Amino acid sequence: MSFFIFNQGGPLMYLILLGSVIGLAVFLERIFHLHRARINTEQFMEELRALIRRRRFDEAIGLCRRTPGPVAHILTAGLSCSSRDRAGIREVIEDAGVHEVPRLEKNLVVLATVAHVSPLLGLLGTVVGMIRAFMIIQEMKGVVNPSDLAGGIWEALLTTAFGLLVAILAYVAYNCLVARVGKMVLEMETSANEMVNLLSKEN
Of the four, 19, 68, 79, 109, which is 20 to 30 A from 153 by CA? Predict the structure, then answer.
């Protein structure tokens, strides 16, 4: 029954379905990636702070390399040039951050595209369905039963509803991921500033 209803939406339903599958795949992949990149930043910085104050830079670099995520990656770069001045350390950390942020945002544009294109496909299906209905009216010279127009109306309503549903879910998923990325970028900036201050003080 559900397949019959889906099929009544016409070929555009399959394009919207393809978009929903792509969006779901991107969302799951990003959630998994961001989950793996998450660390207890406060605890990590506490351990790192203690090592730096004891000038055990090699151990601090080792701790960063064993720790997953962008925060540890950019701090590794900073520790590797701990002998530089404040401006030099900051520059190295910022350069490392420039490479980390795109990794966090990878494929988010695909999810945003699904959220924007799905309702447009639904609208296109609505137009196609109404064209079909008016073609039937013209062919039958205005003498029609509601059942004669059912196919076009089905197509118009189903594509609109399905397109909007996929768009809403994709938009919510996109905002969820953007919020997570934003939080991690903020942690990167905070940790980077603290690292610059610590290393400058030690130098």
Answer: 19
Q: How does residue 1 score in pLDDT terms, banded at 50, 70 and 90?
A: very low
H or E segment and range at residue 46: helix 41-53
197: left (phi > 0), else alpha (psi -120 to 50), else beta? alpha
Q: Which value, to the nearest 10 degrees, does the dihedral of the CA atoms of residues 103, 104, 105, 111 take?
A: 110
Model pLDDT for residues 29-49, shown as the tens digit of each residue: 999 999 888 888 889 899 888
Query: How many Cβ atoms sit within 10 Å of the Cβ of residue 125?
Result: 26
Only one residue has tokens 């988010």, namely 108
| DSSP sequence for 126-175 | HHHHHHHHHHHHHHTTT---HHHHHHHHHHHHHHHHHHHHHHHHHHHHHH
- The full DSSP string for 179-200 is HHHHHHHHHHHHHHHHHHHHHH
Task: At 189, list the tokens.
Answer: 């900036």
Q: Report CA 189 to chain centroid distance, whole Å.
A: 20
pTM for this entry: 0.82
Radius of gyration of the chain (CA): 27
Would you list the domain boundaries of the chain? 2-202
Q: Please give the Cα distance from 80 to 165 (Å, whole number).
A: 49
